[in-house]
Task: structure prediction
Amino acid sequence: MNPFTTHAGLIAPLNRPNVDTDQIIPKQYLKTIHRTGLKEGLFADWRETSTGTPDPEFFSNQPRYQKATILLTGENFGCGSSREHAPWALLDYGFRCILAPSFADIFYNNCFQNGILPIILTEHEIQDLFERETMHKPYSVTVDLHQQHVSLPGGDCFSFEIDSFKKDCLLKGLDAIALTLQSQDAIHAYETRRRTESPWLFQDRTS
Result:
């Protein structure tokens, strides 16, 4: 996955609490194991009105948000089922960062495994960003993972906390598989030693 170091991007507002993974990517879009093409299902039920026409108020239907890479949203984002298609769909749309007061635990961890940085800010800071975005459209911020802060136009800055291990993996672009492969030589040496020490474990039982 791509490393995350410093990212400057346009904010897309989704001012709703408790957005669950079925709302992020509805179940009918879960038939694939590929990570591309899922942006077509991102927030599918909210993008349309009850008559089936595009909702002009929803951010993804507005031209100014077509290149947004930072999602600003409400508390408990990503609750519900643990489907990994949710961060896949967000990443496929172009989001590299999500700003919220809180996240569901499984979704939060899945973001790191897919190169998305979920940032927890205070409710006051999130509301401040919503107000600034409303007043100054389009509105962009800069996220610095090294320094752990979000820089706003005009000089204001919001700091955030992050687990040091997750931070290091994201800075280096390492998911669980890539992290394991860093120890490939040690794994091979262990497997070779085990074959010598306990050869009966590796006998061909089909003969």
About this structure: The mean pLDDT is 91. The first helix runs from residue 21 to 24. The radius of gyration is 21 Å.
